From TrEMBL:
<dbReference type="InterPro" id="IPR023828">
    <property type="entry name" value="Peptidase_S8_Ser-AS"/>
</dbReference>
<comment type="similarity">
    <text>Belongs to the peptidase S8 family.</text>
</comment>
<dbReference type="InterPro" id="IPR036852">
    <property type="entry name" value="Peptidase_S8/S53_dom_sf"/>
</dbReference>
<keyword id="KW-0645">Protease</keyword>
<keyword id="KW-0378">Hydrolase</keyword>
<protein>
    <submittedName>
        <fullName>S8 family serine peptidase</fullName>
    </submittedName>
</protein>
<dbReference type="InterPro" id="IPR050131">
    <property type="entry name" value="Peptidase_S8_subtilisin-like"/>
</dbReference>
<feature type="active site" description="Charge relay system">
    <location>
        <position position="182"/>
    </location>
</feature>
<keyword id="KW-0732">Signal</keyword>
<feature type="signal peptide">
    <location>
        <begin position="1"/>
        <end position="23"/>
    </location>
</feature>
<feature type="active site" description="Charge relay system">
    <location>
        <position position="396"/>
    </location>
</feature>
<feature type="active site" description="Charge relay system">
    <location>
        <position position="218"/>
    </location>
</feature>
<dbReference type="InterPro" id="IPR017317">
    <property type="entry name" value="Pept_S8_subtilisin_bacteroid-2"/>
</dbReference>
<feature type="domain" description="Peptidase S8/S53">
    <location>
        <begin position="173"/>
        <end position="442"/>
    </location>
</feature>
<dbReference type="InterPro" id="IPR000209">
    <property type="entry name" value="Peptidase_S8/S53_dom"/>
</dbReference>
<dbReference type="InterPro" id="IPR023827">
    <property type="entry name" value="Peptidase_S8_Asp-AS"/>
</dbReference>
<keyword id="KW-0720">Serine protease</keyword>
Length: 463
């Protein structure tokens, strides 16, 4: 189950009843600005808007702070608020502001400003919102059966990449920070399988006042592929990494505003100094078909999410993204932001290395190989809603499985830049000499990648 997310059911009893009578209809508009001329920030003092860890990550990779890093001009935001509407969030990389308004006339007034290039409606409030699960923690039983293998249920999805060799060498993600941008992390705070996991913080960009642990379970399952840490029950691919849990997916509707939420989330991840972002989200179709993407728009620039993911790569973040589950649909193709440049897009295979028929295919509209590589997404071991082990299908789970492994690789080879990491992953994969639009470069041998990373340092080409 990969989250496109096309109305994936909330889960359990959520669909049993709908919310109470709807309030007045509201709208959210993406306001594209022209410049940052009135900024109060300076590139001479990046510590005012980026953490020390974020600056260190860039300096380590030889990346300069530039004008795209400057926050959106507060003076412009204040003017939009004066004209009506409520400020929701902004994207400094894309220089956009998201405003909530009661009607279209307010948004049209924004166009009178010389600093506004365009406005686009990206959200209409739904008639009702399903209630969340009451007494959610009562669902958690924390019961499981032990296996002979150290990795428990996750053994095959790690060993197919020789990831256990990295772990045995002492690389389990310690010191690495991973942001998981998803749809909610249902009951993570009540599950013993995560009791040793380092969670640095959470943030909900859909509803800042929500209980992020009371939202959808998809993010919890994605997170478990990396972070679960109970030997002989389930051990993830990066059990010693530290995590930020960020929500950008609004499962109650399917509207373009979710790209704005995601853009804000990835910029937040950058600003706090995260090393790697995993996202098992993607969008090509929406509630209003007029918003749908087309094949020719899979260019890494058209969608706001792909644009933001490409920006993240330029800031020294490694973005790992699920390819999508449309391989058997009429769409078939990867789904934005999987088309972004400079990221790792992950397709799904079974534990024998055979591609899943649902796994979305490439290439991008501008001819880049996608997916990049493959990981297990058929009968993937995940944590269930009761806190025990379970299984699920989808590139949603192939992505974090690989994300955790590449975090361990980067821990082992900290001199690598993001482009070097991606190049090594490609070269260490079993189809590196003949990549295609189904498997990409194939299945990566992480120990081989590690040896390549060591050689790069020895040759003097590493940072």
């Amino acid at each position: 189950m990969w989250m496109k997310l096309n109305r994936v059911g909330i889960f359990l009893c959520l669909l049993a009843c709908l919310g109470s009578a709807s309030a007045e209809t509201m709208y959210k508009y993406r306001v594209q600005l022209t410049d940052k001329k009135k900024t109060t920030y300076s590139l001479a003092h990046p510590e005012d808007f980026l953490s020390a860890r974020a600056l260190a990550r860039r300096a380590h990779q030889g990346l300069a702070v530039d004008s795209t890093d400057l926050p959106v001009c507060q003076a412009y935001i204040d003017r939009l608020k004066e004209q009506g509407g409520q400020y929701v969030l902004s994207s400094k990389w894309n220089n956009t502001v998201l405003m909530e308004v009661p009607d279209e006339s307010v948004a049209l007034r924004y166009l009178d400003n010389p600093f506004v290039r365009s406005v686009k409606k990206v959200w209409t409030s739904p008639d009702s919102i399903p209630p969340r699960v009451a007494h959610r923690k009562d669902l958690v039983k924390n019961q499981w059966k032990k296996q002979d293998d150290y990795y428990g249920m996750a053994s095959s999805q790690i060993k197919i990449h020789n990831g256990d060799s990295l772990h045995l060498a002492g690389f389990k993600g310690q010191g690495m920070q991973i942001a998981v941008i998803d749809a909610g992390f249902f009951n993570v705070d009540a599950m013993k399988i995560f009791r040793k996991t380092s969670i640095l913080g959470t943030h909900d960009f859909v509803n800042p006042h929500s209980d992020i642990y009371g939202e959808h379970n998809h993010g919890m399952k994605v997170f478990s592929c990396m972070a679960a840490d109970v030997p002989h029950v389930m051990v993830g691919t990066a059990p010693e990494a530290s995590y930020w849990l960020l929500r950008s997916e609004d499962n109650d509707t399917e509207q373009p505003v979710e790209e704005d939420y995601w853009a804000a989330a990835v910029e937040f991840a950058d600003s706090v100094g995260v090393d790697i972002v995993n996202t098992s989200l993607g969008y090509y179709s929406f509630d209003d078909p007029v918003d749908n993407y087309t094949y020719r728009e899979l260019d890494g620039r058209t969608s706001l999410m792909a644009s933001s993911a490409s920006y993240a790569a330029k800031k020294g973040l490694l973005v790992v993204c699920s390819a999508g589950n449309s391989g058997m649909d009429t769409w078939k193709k990867i789904t934005p932001p999987a088309d972004a440049d400079g990221i790792l897009t992950i397709g799904a295979i079974d534990n024998m290395g055979v591609n899943a028929p649902f796994s979305s295919i490439g290439d991008t509209a501008d001819g880049r190989i996608k997916p990049d590589v493959m990981a297990v997404g058929v009968h993937s071991a995940v944590v269930g809603v009761d806190g025990g082990t379970s299984f699920a299908n989808g590139t949603s789970f192939a992505s974090p499985t690989f994300c955790g492994l590449v975090a361990c690789l980067w821990q082992a080879c900290p001199w690598l830049t993001v482009p070097q990491l991606i190049e090594i992953v490609h070269k260490a994969s079993d189809r590196s000499t003949y990549p295609d639009n189904i498997y990409g470069y194939g299945v990566t041998d992480m120990w081989k990648a590690y040896q390549m990373g060591l050689k790069l340092k020895t040759d003097g080409n590493g940072k």
